[in-house]
């Protein structure tokens, strides 16, 4: 898995966050110029993900690995990307990256996050992860059901198109 690295255009911020949660290194900046995206893809051997047909054509003509992601819903985009690159649509906390800054996460105990999360969160959850880059704290809270729902929908869509 670690061998796949991506760079995403400004229209794929949400997909970038999802791929990071799935453990993939994704460079994303919503105001990066096309030439900068092409340069990063080439110099860092990254797969370019784009919703821009002209950028797709330029990358293809330049011999870069590129995927045109035209689906509307997040589940459809994830299914399309997963199908193209044989990505497993499962969150594995051992390889998950920070959806915000793309840095690795590390597992920590409650004591490490005492001053960083609400006391109710500490009472209800025992597993926490901290981003090594930005310091953001993560846990499998109420939002986890939505994450699972979207991943299951993407898996379902993959099955229909296979």
Describe this structure in words.
The protein is an alpha/beta fold and 162 residues long. The protein has a domain at 5-92 and 151-161: Rossmann fold (3-Layer(aba) Sandwich). 40% of the residues lie in helices and 15% in strands. It is built from six helices and seven strands. The strands form two sheets. The chain has a four-stranded parallel sheet, sandwiched between helices.
For the sheet with most strands, the description reads: 4 strands, parallel
Q: Fill in the CATH topology of the domain at 5-92 and 151-161.
A: Rossmann fold
DSSP strand content: 15-25%
- Radius of gyration, in Å, reads 17 Å
Straight-line distance between termini: 21 Å
The outline comes out as globular
Main β-sheet, spatial strand arrangement: 2-1-3-4
What is the residue-averaged pLDDT? 94
H-E string: EHEHEHEHEHEEH
Tell me the structural class: alpha/beta
Question: What's the helix count?
Answer: 6
* Helix coverage percent: 25-40%
Q: Which CATH architecture of the domain at 5-92 and 151-161 is right?
A: 3-Layer(aba) Sandwich
Count of β-strands: 7
CATH class of the domain at 5-92 and 151-161: Alpha Beta
Chain oligomer state: single chain
Give the uncertain stretches in residue-range form: none
Q: In terms of topology, how is this protein built?
A:
Elements: E1 5-8, H1 13-21, E2 25-28, H2 34-43, E3 47-50, H3 53-61, E4 66-68, H4 74-85, E5 105-108, H5 119-124, E6 128-131, E7 137-138, H6 144-161
Helix pairs in contact: 4-6
């Amino acid at each position: 898995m670690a061998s796949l690295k991506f760079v995403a255009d400004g229209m794929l911020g949400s997909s970038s966050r999802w791929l990071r949660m799935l453990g993939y290194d994704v460079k994303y900046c919503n105001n990066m110029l096309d030439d900068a995206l092409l340069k990063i893809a080439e110099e860092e051997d990254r797969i370019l993900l784009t919703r821009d047909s002209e950028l797709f054509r330029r990358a293809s003509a330049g011999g870069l690995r590129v995927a045109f992601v035209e689906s509307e819903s997040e589940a459809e985009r994830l299914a399309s990307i997963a199908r193209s690159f044989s990505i497993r649509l499962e969150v594995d906390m051992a390889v998950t990256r920070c959806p915000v800054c793309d840095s690795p996460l590390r597992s920590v105990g409650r004591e490490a996050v005492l001053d960083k999360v609400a006391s109710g969160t500490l009472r209800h959850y025992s597993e926490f992860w901290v981003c090594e880059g930005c310091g953001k704290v993560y846990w499998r809270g109420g939002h986890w059901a939505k994450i699972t729902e979207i991943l299951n929908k993407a898996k379902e869509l993959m099955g229909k198109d296979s």
